[in-house]
Amino acid sequence: MALPFNDLYDVRSLLSEEECAVQDTVARFTNERVLPIIGDAFDQGRFPKELVPEIAELGLLGSSLPEQYGGHGLNAVSYGLICQELERGDSGIRSFVSVQSSLCMYPIYAYGTEEQRMRWLPDMAAGKVIGCFGLTEPHGGSDPANMKTTARKDGGDWVLNGSKMWITNGNVADIAIVWAQTDDGIQGFVVEKGMAGFAAQEIKHKMSLRASVTSSLFFDNVRVPEANRLPNVKGLKGPLGCLTQARYGITWGPIGAAIACLDEALNYSKERILFERPVAATQSAQLKLADMARRITMGQLLVIQLGRLKDAGRMVPAQVSLAKWNNCRMAIDIARQCRDLLGGAGITTEHCAIRHALNLESVITYEGTETVHQLVIGRELTGISAF
Q1: Which residues contact 341 (CB under 8 A, 6 or more apart)?
Q2: How far apart are CA 259 and CA 204, in angstroms?
Q3: Which domain range does residue 62 map to?
Q4: Per residue in 291-315, pLDDT tens?
Q5: What is the C-alpha separation between 329 and 350, in angstroms, rounded?
Q6: Given 230, 250, 283, which residue is the final one in a domain?
Q7: Are 62 and 101 within 8 A, CB to CB?
Q8: pTM (whole model) above 0.90
Q9: How far apart are CA 144 and CA 161, in angstroms?
Q10: What is the pLDDT of residues 126-178, one digit of tens each?
Q11: Is 354 in a helix, a strand, or coil?
Q12: Last residue of a domain, one of 196, 230, 264
C-alpha cells in the first residue's frame, strides 16, 4: 500500500485520540470554510473577518488556557496541529489565531492579575474582543532592546508615547498589548481602542499576508490607567516569553503550507502531459517531489518532539529557534519549487503555491528572521553572542 504523501513516517500514530480529533476538526474547517474563499480574499487584500466567530466557536482562540478563562486546556501538540491545519489554508488565518492566542491572551494570563484575566480573556476566547501585539518598531524589529516607545508614570496613570509597526490585527483590534520603556525597565500595557491619542493605520501595498490586517500603531500622550499595566513581569523577558509561545506555533504552521503546495503539485504533475507523458513520469519532477516529501517529513518529526518537550516543561527557546528556522526555510523552498512545477499556471492565485510562497516571505521574517534564529543556534553552540 502506498504511503500517504503527507505523512511518510506515520507521525499520525504518535498522536493521542484527542490530538487526532483536534487535527481532524480544524482540517475540516479549513477545507470547508477557508479554502473556498481564501484565494479571493488574498486577491482583494481582505481579512475574512466573517470566519472569526466560527474560529472562536471551534475553541481555537486561547485553546491552551484553562477553561475558566475560555480556553480548553489543550496541550502544546494540539495547539501545533491547529496552527498546521490553519496555515494549510493560509498563513494569514494562522497569524490571526497565533496573535490572539499566543501574543495577546497568553501575556494577560501569564503576566496579568486575576481581575485582568477575567476582564478580557473570556471575551477574547469568544472572539468578542480582538487583540494585537505591539513590540516591533519602525527602526527595526530584530533589536527589541532598543525600544523607543516610552511609558511615564503620571499620578494613577501611565502616559505612552511612540509607535509600533508591522502589527497583525492592528486595525481590527479592540485592545493592544503594548511594550514600552519605563524608568523601571520594559513593561507591558493593555491599551484599549478609543483611548485618546491612540491610532492605528493599516499598511497597504502588501504582496504578502494579503488576507491579514497589518498596521502601524501610534501613541501620542495616551493615558493608560494603572489597572491596565501587566504587573507580573519586567524587562525583555516579558515580550520574549510571548514570542517563544508564538514561535512555537509557527514551527508547525509552515508544514501545513508546504503540504498544501505539495498536494497541488503532485496532482497537477500527474495530469499535465508534456512530450506525450505526464510531468510526474519524469525523473526531474520525481526528484523534486521526493525532496519535498523528505523535507516535510523531517519538519514533522522535529515539531512532534518539540511539542512533547514543551508539554513536559523541558522546551527551551533555542529549540524553538531551530525548528522555526528549519521549517520556514523548508516551506518557502517547497512553495517556490511547486510554483515552478506548475509552470505558467503557478503564477495565478487560482493555485495555492504562489500565495503560500508570498505569505511565507512574511513568516520567515516575523518573530525572528532566519538570520536571528541561526545566530541563536550559533550562540548555543559556541557560547559566544554574535548579535
Answers
A1: 265, 268, 269, 279, 285, 288, 289
A2: 29
A3: 11-125
A4: 999 999 999 999 999 999 999 999 9
A5: 24
A6: 230
A7: yes
A8: yes
A9: 16
A10: 999 999 999 999 987 777 888 999 999 999 999 999 999 999 999 999 999 99
A11: helix
A12: 230
C-alpha cell at 375: 545566530
- DSSP letter for each residue of 95-146: HHHHIIIIIIIHHHHHHS-HHHHHHHHHHHHTTSS-EEEE--BTTBSS-TTS
Q: Which cell goes with 129?
A: 474582543
How many distinct structural domains can be found in the chain? 3
- d(Cα 326, Cα 373) in Å, to the nearest integer? 10
Q: Is residue 195 part of a domain?
A: yes
- Residue 387 within any structural domain of the chain: no
Instruction: Compute the chain's Rg from CA coordinates.
Output: 21
pLDDT given at position 1: 64
Report how far residue 91's alpha carbon sits from residue 358's, in angstroms, rounded to the nearest whole number: 10
Kindly tell me if the per-residue pLDDT of 281 is higher than 70: yes
72 to 79, 256, 265: CA distances (angstroms): 11, 23, 36
Which CATH number goes with the domain that contains 71?
Answer: 1.10.540.10
Q: Which of 18, 57, 367, 380 is catalytic?
A: 367
What are residue 384's phi and psi, to 5 degrees? -120, 130
Count the residues in the chain: 387
Task: Give the Cα separation of 313 and 150 in Å (integer).
Answer: 34
Instruction: Concatenate the DSSP letters of all residues of 145-175 into one string.
Output: TS---EEEEETTEEEEEEEEEEEETGGG-SE
Q: Is residue 6 part of a domain?
A: no
Q: Which letter does DSSP use for residue 192 in this model?
A: E
How far apart, in whole angstroms, are the C-alpha atoms of residue 201 and residue 341? 38
Note whether 257 and 305 are same-domain residues: yes
Q: Is 50 a catalytic residue?
A: no
CATH number for the domain spanning 303: value is 1.20.140.10
